[in-house]
Amino acid sequence: MSEKRLRGVSIAYKKDGTKYYRSSITHRNKHISLGSYDNPSDAHSAYWEAAILLTKKDLSIEQYSPERILSYRKWVILINFRDNDIYLTAPIYMRANYFEYHLEHGCVLKFSTDDLFYYSKKSIMKRGRHFFVADYGMQVNILNRYGIKNYGVPGRDYMFVNGDDLDFRYENIRIINRYHGVTYKLTKRGPEFTARIHIIGNYTIGRYPSEIEAAIAYNKAIDLLKKNGVKKNYSPNYIEDIPAKEYAEIYSNVRISKKVRDFHLPA
After folding, report:
1. How far apart are CA 11 and CA 43, in angstroms?
2. Is 76 in a helix, a strand, or coil?
3. What is the pTM of this model?
């Protein structure tokens, strides 16, 4: 005997022959998959929940609860479609000058609209307070898009201007230290940039009045260490803010500490 056909529900089968039920809805000529369920009742309930959500403006993202049939992700997607007339497959809600990425219930990330195309095609993953996307088969920290290194420390290498570490809008992120081995400190004499390098323990290369000088000093220290037989694979700083002639002049004149300059590996 055939099953009674329920609106928005279709039957499907897994590779092993197990039956399951797909739920879907069509709204504004857009066919939307709502998920898969073990029984027709839940699939049918998902359809009606979506139908109500797409037509009732008084239902908000904040009204989601774990008791809902729809997933939180789909709840956000449908409300964004309802309110902004744009269907995205990522859990994004468009605001006037930015968008929210609803990673999970209670965890909402903010991004500049310039990043909409990128994140509408990506799934953000979370590990503690670190956020990643899969890019070309690799897990990429989203802070890399701002020029922040994987080992960057908040408060030392970068900061969130408004104090909200889930607000990734460009104007809210201030980079303090952009270069390998360089840290910033405000002293009584003014800004001071210290260059350090790890050989056998950390060695101070020197202290400099500008970030560029400290970054170039780090590069020069790498060259000196290689010349002295250190085979460690250091990543030099890529500096695009100055012409080659100015770089060469700073490189030639910048001072390197004697400990780094004369370092040799023990026999």
Report:
1. 10
2. helix
3. 0.77
